[in-house]
């Protein structure tokens, strides 16, 4: 007597959320460019954070301009300590690796990576929406340099990265 495997689509909503959509080799192959682009972008942003943790002010000439443009605060002394900046580097690097793993041939690897990509997509989406909200509704809450960058670069990039991670959830079967 064989035991039928439970169908998560018929179970509680929480189990449906935790169960990845079925993906065949063709779907995974089609998602690979999205995974690579998303991972490369997350990795590049992580590399910039690593450079900042090491003391670089790139792409700006001095710490004060970097702080005003990236954090939205007027004083260079307010820049996060290297350890905190390296923690962000680590999170970005892990998210990049998980994005690539979402197109692995191994279902177990994809399922494990999903535990990282879904929260990362959520955090990036919240950052993107929250950034737009702050910069549009309370533009004086941060320096003008930050507000300018946030509206043109940071928030749109966060939303694009969230969309890239969410796209990796595409099912083989389109559901109505």
Notes on the structure:
- This protein is mainly α.
- The protein has one domain (24-167).
- Helix content is 68%, strand content 0%.
- It has six helices and no strands.
- The protein has helices spanning 13-18, 25-53, 63-71, 82-101, 107-137, 144-167.
- Helix 2 runs antiparallel to helix 4, helix 4 (82-101) crosses helix 5 and helix 5 (107-137) runs antiparallel to helix 6.
- The longest helix has 31 residues, at 107-137.
- It starts with 12 loop residues before the first helix and ends in a 9-residue tail after the last helix.
- The mean pLDDT is 89.
Give the key terms:
mainly alpha; 6 helices; 68% helix; elongated
Topology:
Blueprint: H1 13-18, H2 25-53, H3 63-71, H4 82-101, H5 107-137, H6 144-167
Helix pairs in contact: 2-4, 2-6, 3-6, 4-5, 5-6
